[in-house]
Backbone:
């Protein structure tokens, strides 16, 4: 079996020697032998096996490490189980071990290199309606300066030089309104994967609101004014497509919908002055104090968790449902000053932000490799997102789950596309690599521990392989360029 460390550093200067080492180790296997290749990660994955040597070599050739630094222990434990008491483990890395590892034979073939990387990249709104692109770059080693190019769509802008101070350089670029896709590229250096970042336009997270109130009630509640102040909402007449509904009578809700019922009931009215009992720990009441408020409502019971009360009388209650949730407002807006109080728009702002999490589509337009990208389906019978397909940057496709919230972890840098019915494009999500520890190539080294025959990447002869073929046939455990493991032990 072989375990491949899926970290990005193999793309650095030792790739040629690493490839030669992998070929030589696999070359020790006879035609009748079998090898199993594992890939490290939060969850170890089998790349191939048990397969003949030629198939193992093909799997290695197709493998490209891109993950950030992670703990290889789960893959190592699995490999030890596969090896058994008689197997041998070859640990191919690019740094020298800092502690003995009795059950590992270490082969390192790294080369120290200076390297620059993109640490952060943000698109921020500008006062003129355009955007500000804010970058932070880092340098590892004796790299005093670099240059970056901003690509708008497919049009590269003139390169910009930056100088590092204490290994860090900040830059800001003004982007025109409607800049569309933005890509940042550093001048080529030792590691290519940390030299590029994609920033797509932010996905639309507008909340659809369905107002089912009678006209006079809508006017008394001043919701047009409130929603205009809150922003980020649009009105829809279709209650099925709304994330936030406002009504006077309960309706049938879909998953993810929030219904606000203004329902003082048909009984006797009463008025209350503060102080009120307010559950300020509830997310819908963050910043709501109700100081100086006079509240008119009905003398009635409300279902659910009481959030605001005047003595024993519930004024606001949160009713969780099997599908969605319902907020009850025991409020008669014909009198009192609730709708004129500063807390009124605050309450609705909290409701809108809660509903925004349920807006269909991608939650974010860009993620880091190793992080989960999420897409929320609308769950409308005739919708385009009944079935979803993920298209990766290399053009490969695979179906996504049919849950309401679909998640996937990008395994390639670049722009991923979420496709719906008839290949309709529903979302684009960019993934990029960021890991300062993996971008630091200064500690790479070449050697073998314990003493072992030298691996010469250029020469055809290697060693007397009689004894080694014996244990390679039992287990070939190949952790390629797994510098993060040794570096993690160094920091412990």
Residues:
């Amino acid at each position: 079996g072989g375990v491949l460390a899926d970290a990005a550093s193999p793309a650095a200067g030792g790739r040629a020697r690493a490839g030669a080492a992998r070929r030589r180790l696999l070359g020790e296997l006879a035609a009748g032998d079998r090898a199993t290749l594992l890939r490290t990660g939060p969850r170890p994955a089998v790349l191939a096996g048990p397969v003949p040597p030629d198939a193992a070599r093909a799997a290695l050739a197709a493998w490209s490490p891109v993950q950030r630094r992670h703990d290889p222990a789960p893959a190592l434990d699995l490999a030890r189980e596969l090896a058994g008491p008689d197997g041998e483990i070859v640990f191919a890395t690019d740094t020298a071990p800092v502690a003995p590892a009795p059950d590992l034979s270490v082969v390192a073939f790294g080369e120290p290199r200076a390297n620059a990387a993109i640490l952060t990249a943000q698109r921020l709104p500008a006062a003129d309606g355009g955007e500000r692109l804010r970058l932070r770059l880092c340098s590892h080693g004796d790299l005093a300066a670099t240059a970056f190019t901003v690509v708008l769509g497919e049009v590269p802008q003139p390169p910009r030089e930056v100088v590092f101070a204490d290994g860090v350089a900040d830059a800001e670029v003004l982007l025109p309104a409607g800049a569309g896709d933005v890509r940042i590229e550093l001048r080529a250096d030792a590691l290519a994967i940390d030299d590029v970042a994609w920033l797509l336009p932010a996905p639309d997270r507008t909340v659809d609101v369905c107002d089912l109130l009678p006209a006079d009630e809508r006017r008394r509640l001043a919701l047009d004014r409130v929603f205009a102040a809150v922003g980020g909402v649009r009105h829809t007449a279709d209650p099925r497509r709304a994330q936030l509904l406002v009504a006077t009578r309960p309706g049938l809700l879909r998953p993810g919908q929030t219904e606000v019922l203004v329902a003082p009931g048909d009984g006797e009215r009463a008025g209350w002055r503060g102080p009120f009992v307010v559950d300020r720990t509830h997310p819908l009441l963050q910043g709501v104090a109700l100081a100086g408020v006079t509240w008119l409502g009905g003398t009635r019971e409300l279902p659910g968790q009481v959030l605001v009360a005047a003595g024993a009388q519930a004024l606001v209650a949160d009713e969780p449902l099997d599908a969605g949730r319902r907020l009850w407002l025991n409020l008669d807006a014909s009198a009192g000053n609730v709708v004129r109080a500063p807390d009124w728009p605050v309450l609705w702002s909290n409701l809108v932000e809660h509903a925004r999490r349920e807006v269909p589509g991608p939650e974010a337009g860009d993620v880091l490799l190793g992080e989960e990208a999420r897409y929320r389906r609308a769950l409308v019978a005739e919708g385009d997102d009944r079935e979803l397909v993920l298209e990766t940057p290399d053009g490969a496709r695979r179906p996504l789950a049919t849950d309401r919230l679909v998640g996937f972890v990008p395994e390639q840098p670049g722009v991923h596309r979420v496709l719906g019915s008839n290949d309709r494009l529903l979302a684009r999500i960019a993934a990029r690599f960021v890991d300062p520890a993996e971008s630091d190539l200064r500690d790479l080294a070449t050697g073998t521990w314990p003493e072992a025959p030298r691996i010469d990447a250029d020469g055809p002869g290697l060693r007397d392989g009689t004894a080694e073929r014996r244990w390679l046939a039992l287990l070939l455990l190949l952790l390629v360029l797994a510098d993060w493991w040794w570096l993690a032990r160094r920091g412990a």
The first strand starts at residue 2 and ends at 4. The radius of gyration is 30 Å. The longest helix spans residues 343-356. DSSP finds nine helices and 32 strands in the chain.
